[in-house]
Amino acid sequence: MDDRFPLPIPYTTPSSEFLYGTSVVEAALTSRKAPTRQLYKLYIYTGENREKSSTDRDVDIAKLASRAGVKVSRMKSPDDLRMMDKMSGGRPHNGYVLEASPLPRLPITRLAEITNVDGVAGFKVTVDHQSKEDALVNGTNDFIKAPFTGPAAHPIVLFLDSVQDPGNLGGIIRTASFLGINAVAIATRNSASFTPVVLKASAGASENITLFSVSKPEVFIQESREAGWKIYAAVAPASGRDGYYSRKSVSTDRLGDPLVEGPCVLMLGGEGEGLRMNLRKKADVDVYIPGSAQRFTVDSLNVSVAAGILCSAFVKRRKGVVADAEAESEGDKQEVFSL
């Protein structure tokens, strides 16, 4: 086909999305999250200019697709490659594109009580109104599993408001998943949309961590607080001339072990302005990252980097509890975090 003419992209459904890249495709094919995406078709490029080192990986990914009941289409011609490039928006896809339904993000109005259902620990949420079509994608289950929740390890939810850069949003989701954050709740009106860029930046983590969408952040924070969740606001340290900090403000190195006390919500604002004041006022505690004492240094961190430091401060003492519990479970896979 003449490359001057546009190639039509085949869609199984009008709402289909195209996932691309090795890590994202593998994560979607192996996801155990409930609800999960509907997977329609996997495209694998096997043309003449395909690297020989990719052959074994092609076989492995095709096997994953077969186990998941996903049809595999092997693309060989230059026009096939053009089509895959178009599916990925011109971004690198490593020879793998997967057509799937939208990513489930349960809309909620609040976090509710910690509970146990059929011997599984977790917490309740109040599900927001959604259309029948959205309910098919997001599900309607109001019980969220939180493995290893107990007296020494209550759940923690990361709430993101005004994170507008897709790369930062994906990076935060990746970090939260790696560190064992139970869920990520995202304000819908002023945050980055869940584009393929976000999914790529998350390196597949978005396919496995629980995601919530929140349409009314102030109500969400207030009602979650009333339900027993302690609210922490990530802010820059506000010091006076004498270096005195508000009694509600604590640094990450003096945070202690808040997850022993009860379930927590960590609020994180966006690039530039940080957390909006109307949300910060609803927090129980402000938490900040102490910087160095050097004079000539940057006074802030990238929001994705800050999220990693903050989340780690909350879960660092829980890791021992989780590690002991995982050691007793058979067949668990150890995650390797590669930078």
UniProtKB/TrEMBL annotation:
<dbReference type="InterPro" id="IPR001537">
    <property type="entry name" value="SpoU_MeTrfase"/>
</dbReference>
<dbReference type="GO" id="GO:0003723">
    <property type="term" value="F:RNA binding"/>
</dbReference>
<keyword id="KW-0698">rRNA processing</keyword>
<dbReference type="InterPro" id="IPR029064">
    <property type="entry name" value="Ribosomal_eL30-like_sf"/>
</dbReference>
<protein>
    <recommendedName>
        <fullName>rRNA methyltransferase 1, mitochondrial</fullName>
    </recommendedName>
</protein>
<dbReference type="Pfam" id="PF00588">
    <property type="entry name" value="SpoU_methylase"/>
</dbReference>
<comment type="similarity">
    <text>Belongs to the class IV-like SAM-binding methyltransferase superfamily. RNA methyltransferase TrmH family.</text>
</comment>
<dbReference type="InterPro" id="IPR047261">
    <property type="entry name" value="MRM1_MeTrfase_dom"/>
</dbReference>
<keyword id="KW-0949">S-adenosyl-L-methionine</keyword>
<dbReference type="InterPro" id="IPR029026">
    <property type="entry name" value="tRNA_m1G_MTases_N"/>
</dbReference>
<feature type="domain" description="RNA 2-O ribose methyltransferase substrate binding">
    <location>
        <begin position="18"/>
        <end position="106"/>
    </location>
</feature>
<dbReference type="InterPro" id="IPR029028">
    <property type="entry name" value="Alpha/beta_knot_MTases"/>
</dbReference>
<dbReference type="InterPro" id="IPR047182">
    <property type="entry name" value="MRM1"/>
</dbReference>
<keyword id="KW-0496">Mitochondrion</keyword>
<dbReference type="GO" id="GO:0016435">
    <property type="term" value="F:rRNA (guanine) methyltransferase activity"/>
</dbReference>
<dbReference type="InterPro" id="IPR013123">
    <property type="entry name" value="SpoU_subst-bd"/>
</dbReference>
<keyword id="KW-0489">Methyltransferase</keyword>
<dbReference type="GO" id="GO:0005739">
    <property type="term" value="C:mitochondrion"/>
</dbReference>
<keyword id="KW-0808">Transferase</keyword>
<keyword id="KW-0809">Transit peptide</keyword>
